[in-house]
Amino acid sequence: SQTIHQWPATLVQPVGSPLSLECTVEGTSNPNLYWYRQAAGRGLQLLFYSVGIGQISSEVPQNLSASRPQDRQFILSSKKLLLSDSGFYLCAWSGRAAIYFGEGSWLTVV
Amino acid sequence: AQKVTQAQTEISVVEKEDVTLDCVYETRDTTYYLFWYKQPPSGELVFLIRRNSFDEQNEISGRYSWNFQKSTSSFNFTITASQVVDSAVYFCALILTGANNLFFGTGTRLTVIP
Prior knowledge:
The complex is a heterodimer of chains A (110) and B (114).
Chain A: E1 3-7, E2 10-13, E3 19-26, E4 32-38, E5 44-52, E6 55-58, E7 65-70, E8 73-78, E9 87-94, E10 99-101, E11 105-109
Parallel strand pairs in A: 2-11
Antiparallel strand pairs in A: 1-3, 3-8, 4-5, 4-9, 5-6, 7-8, 9-10, 9-11
Chain B: E1 3-5, E2 10-14, E3 19-21, E4 24-26, E5 32-39, E6 46-52, E7 59-61, E8 64-69, E9 74-79, E10 88-96, E11 103-104, E12 108-113
Parallel strand pairs in B: 2-12
Antiparallel strand pairs in B: 1-4, 3-9, 5-6, 5-10, 7-8, 8-9, 10-11, 10-12
């Protein structure tokens, strides 16, 4: 069966520091991969998606970037975090029936 | 443009009551999929159901049921005999066929009181 994992689960970072969130999918090949952000009390916003290695599409211009160095690995990064980057970040992959989400990463920028 | 509206921000019910969560969507496309997800306090989004735009048949899964009506652009979710474990935020979402962006509503927080 397919599984998706992302880490770290929680982190507190100072403004201006870098960020790296990682996500891996097991049990499938060449999945579509996604990064979503959920701000407090709001719905989910698509940040990036990828249909293959090295192929990244950005939905929202911002302080973040994404990379897909391997087929089942998706990384969300920032060189300098802003306070507004705080939120809950979710990685996801697209299966036949639905889009399936990881456990999420809580980011607090202080 | 696509839009999903969940007008109920928060709902509280007493255990064993039935509760319906409303979802209204907007799209000019004729082919799309609708979803419901559950987000418990742990934060993970749990997939509940997918319905495609050509299938208006209602579905029942245990205590859960879904009513899809294209005429009113609604995809409502009913929990029968609610339980405390049903307490969570529920999201309705829409994706166009062949697209990559899942449009989410803002969610409905359901609290089931024991």
